[in-house]
Amino acid sequence: MERLDPQPPASDPIWAGHKPGDGAIYERVCLSDALGAAAGANVVPQVFWAAQAPAVNVDPEQLAREAVDKMLLTGPAIASPRAAGKYVVGVPMWMWVNESPTTYGPNSASASLAGVTVTATAKVSKIDWKMGDGRTVTCNGPGTAYAASYGKQESPTCGHTYTLTSATQSGAKYAVTATATWTVDWQVNGGGGTGQFTEVRQSQTQVAIGEVQVVR
Which of 56, 94, 196, 212 is most buried as measured by Cβ atoms within 10 A of its Cβ? Predict the structure, then answer.
C-alpha cells in the first residue's frame, strides 16, 4: 500500500465526502492481483481513502509522574518518636527518620511513550511534623539519631519539647503526623526538556508524654 503523491484534488469523488485534512488517498495492489499482472492480466489498483493515524501528543511531565508511580514512594519511616517510647514534659525530644529509596530517596525511574523517554529523580526536601499539641516543626533533613551521650541536649537538626502531658488526649497519647515533601526533578532523555514538581506522602504515629513526679 502506498500513499498517492500528489494527492487528488479535494473535488475528486475518491475522497468519499472526506476532506484532505481528514486522511489521505492510498493505492493498494493485492498479492493475487500482482500475480495476475505477472501473467499478463490487466490489473486495476484499488484506490481508497484512509484516516491518518493521529499524532501522539507527549506530555513529558505526565511521563515523569508515571515514572514516580513506579517508585512506590511512601511516607517517612519514623524512627523517633516511637509509639512505645517513654517521653517526658520539658525534656527535648529528638525526631528522625530512616532513609531508604522509597521513604526518603533519592529514587529514580523512567517512563516512555511514542519514542520519548523521561527520567525522574525524587528526594525528600522537607518533613513537616504535626506534634499533636498544636505545634508544627519543619525539618529540612532526616534528623539526627539520638545517643545517650547527648543527655538532655536539644537535637541540632529536628526536635520538639512538649510542655503538657498527653493525659487529656485520646488514648492518652498525642497523634503525630510526619508529612514528607518529595521534590521530583525530571528530564527528557537526549535533551528536549526538564522540569520539577512535588509529591506529598504521610506517616502517623502516637506518643505518650508523661511528667516526672518528685517523691518527698
Answer: 94
Could you tell me which residues come within 8 angstroms of residue 153 by beta carbon, excluding any fewer than 6 positions away? Answer: 92
Q: Which residue has the cell 508515571?
A: 66
Residue 175's nearest CA partner among 210, 126, 133 is 133
Percent of the chain with pLDDT over 90: 67
Helix, strand, coil percentages (3-state) for the chain, rounded to 5, are 15, 40, 45
Work out the average pLDDT over 139-168: 97
> Residue 19: pLDDT above 80?
no
Name 50's Cβ contacts closer than 8 Å, sequence gap at least 6: 23, 24, 25, 26
Distances (CA, A) of 138 to 30, 146, 215: 71, 18, 37
DSSP 3-state of 183: strand
**Short-list 89, 80, 85, 62, CA closest to 158:** 80
The HSE-up count of residue 124 (CA atoms within 13 Å, CB side) is 29
